[in-house]
C-alpha cells in the first residue's frame, strides 16, 4: 500500500478525483482520501455471471470529472473476477482516449482457479504502456504479507525514475534483506508448492459452494475466477449491516469481513476467506445454516 500511495501522490494533485470500482478494497479509498484526493466511484454491475465493468458510467466519469488516475484491482478483491483481455482492452481504450493512467493492483494474479486465465494490463498493446503501471507481490500467493515487499512494473521511464526518487525521499530506498530473500525463494523455488495450493483452494471453493447451497440456500455465492475469497450475498436476510454483523458474531460465531467496508456496493454482503483448513469452512457453513430469512 505505501507504493500505491506514493504513485497517487506522484500522478495526481490534491483535490483530484481518483476512480475506484466498488465493491472495492477499503484501503484503496483510505489512501486516496488520506492523500487529499477524492474517491470517484465507478460501481461494477452485478450479473448472474459475476461482476462486470460499467463502461458507460466510466466514460461519463471521465468526461465530467476528468480524473488523472484509475485504480484497478485484477483479480478483483472482493468479487474474485479476473478481467478478460477484451474487457481490459475496452478499459484501456477509454483511458487512453481521456488521458487516464491505470494503476493495476495484480497482487492476486497467481491465484486463478483451474481453467481460468489471468491477463495483466502489461499483456495489452505496448502503445498503452506509458499509461499503465502493474503492482505485484508474492504476499498473497506465498503468505508473505507481514514482510511488506512488492514489485512495481512501470514501463514509462520518466514515471519510473520519479517513483524511485520519491522512494528515496521517503527513506524507502533501503529494503529488508529477509523480505527480499523470502520473495526470491518463493519465486524461484515455490512453483510446486503454489500448484498444490491452487488445487487445495479450488477444492475448498467447490466444497464450500456446494455445502452453502444445501445448508443456507438464501446465501448466494458470487461466481469467481480467482483469489481465495468468497463474496457472499446475505441480502435475503433483510438485515442492515450492523444487525447482520451481530447475527454473524452471536448466532453464527463467524467474524467475517463485512461488505459495507468495501463501499456502498458491499451493503448486505460478507467476505469469507477460503484459504484455510477445511474444518474452519465446515464451522462457517454450520454457522450460516443457523441464520434464517
- Uncertain stretches of 5 or more adjacent residues: none
Order of helices and strands: HEHEHEHEEHEHHHEEHEEH
In the CATH hierarchy, the architecture of the largest domain is 3-Layer(aba) Sandwich
Q: Kindly state the mean pLDDT as a whole number? A: 95
Strand numbers in spatial order across the main sheet:
2-1-3-4-5-6
User: What structural class results from the helix and strand content?
Assistant: alpha/beta
**Structural domain count:** 2
Largest sheet: 6 strands, mixed
Helix content: 40-55%
The total of beta strands comes to 10
**What is the radius of gyration computed over CA atoms, rounded to a whole number of angstroms?**
20 Å
Number of helices: 10
Annotated CATH homologous superfamily of the largest domain: Type I PLP-dependent aspartate aminotransferase-like (Major domain)
Per CATH, the class of the largest domain reads Alpha Beta
The fraction of residues in strands falls at: 5-15%
Q: Tell me the distance between the termini.
A: 38 Å
Q: Note the overall shape.
A: globular
Could you please say which CATH topology of the largest domain applies here? Aspartate Aminotransferase, domain 2
